[in-house]
C-alpha cells in the first residue's frame, strides 16, 4: 500500500531545495552568529542573507523580519505587543474572529484574564469575516484587529487587504496569521495594509520549528522570550540557523512556483469536490470558490470523523478531521461550530489538504475510498436510517 499524504494543512514534506540549503548549516557553517570570530561572522552573513530573502518574498524590509520558533510564537508576540502597547495608551479592546487558530484564541483568552476586552466576530456559514463587521466593531479604544489570512480547517480566504485598509484609515494595528495563506496566495504586506504578520515554514515544505514575525517599522515589539540580544533584542536565543536558511529556500521556492502550483492544486481540489458531489447528505464547508487551492472540508451526516479517518488510513490516505491541534479530543471543531454547523454534523468532518506533490491518480483513489468508507460507516451507523427518514434533528 502506498501512502497518499493529504494533510498538508497540518504539516508538509520538506522540499529537496530546503533540505539541501540546510545541510551545510548543520555541518561546515556551524558558527554562532553572535560570535565575533570569522566562523561566527560567516554564520551571521547567512542569517542576514536569509532575512533579506524572506523579506523580499512578502515585500517587507529585512529589518522588519524577526525569526521565531514558528507560527504560534509569532502569533503570541504580535498580539502581546499590540495589547501591551495599546494598554499604555488606555486601549484595551481587541477584535478578532471566532474561528482563529488556537495560537491566537488562547493568547486572547490570557489577555481577557488580564482585563482586556476581546470581541470575536462572526464568520457566517461561508466562513468569511465581513469587512463591514470589522469597521463597525472598531472603537476609540481598539488596540488591535487580528484576522487570519486563510482558515486552517476550511481553507476560506479572508478579505485581508480590505480589512487592512479599514484599520489603516482608523489608525488601528492590524495583525494577520498568514500561516495557511503564505505560499498559496500572494502576500504583499504593503499592498495589503498589514502591520504584523505570522508565517510558519513547515506549512510550505520548509522545516518544522521555525517561522517569522513581520513587524512594520515603527512598532516596538514586546519580548515573549527574554535573554540575549538576538533579533535586535526582541527575541532571545541562539538562532536556529539550519531552519532559518531552510525556510528562506522554501519561501523563495513557494513564491516562484505559486501561480503554477495554485493552478495545478486547484484542479485536484475541484476534481475531489466534484467527485464526491453525488454522496447524499454531505456538505462542503466554507465558500465553494473563495478558498485555498488545496483545502477541502466536508461533513458527512450520520458518521463520526474519527472512524472516517481510521478507515481512510487503512487505504493509505492520511487526512484529518480538522485541525491537528484538536484531533484526539472529542469536542467538535470550534471552526465548524462558529460557522453554524450543528454539533452532530460537525462530528462527521473530514479535511483533505492537498499540495503540488499530489497526483490525479491519488485524487481518484481518494474519491473512491471516501465513497466506500462513507457507505460502510453509514451501514453500521445507529442514526443513519433515522437521519434519512428525517427523524433526527440536531
Ligand atoms: C499551523 C498553524 C499555526 C501554528 O504554527 P506552528 O509553526 O505549528 O506553531 C498557526 N496558525 C495557523 C493558521 C496554522 O495553520
TrEMBL record:
Its EC number is 2.8.1.7. Residues 4-364 form the Aminotransferase class V domain. InterPro entries: Aminotrans_V_dom (IPR000192), Aminotrans_V_PyrdxlP_BS (IPR020578), Cys_deSase_NifS_bac/arc (IPR017772), Cysteine_dSase (IPR016454), PyrdxlP-dep_Trfase (IPR015424), PyrdxlP-dep_Trfase_major (IPR015421), PyrdxlP-dep_Trfase_small (IPR015422). Gene3D superfamilies: 1.10.260.50, Aspartate Aminotransferase, domain 1, Type I PLP-dependent aspartate aminotransferase-like (Major domain). Its cofactor is pyridoxal 5'-phosphate. Keywords: Iron, Iron-sulfur, Metal-binding, Pyridoxal phosphate, Transferase. Belongs to the class-V pyridoxal-phosphate-dependent aminotransferase family. NifS/IscS subfamily. Catalyzes the removal of elemental sulfur atoms from cysteine to produce alanine. Homodimer. This is Cysteine desulfurase. It comes from Eubacterium coprostanoligenes.
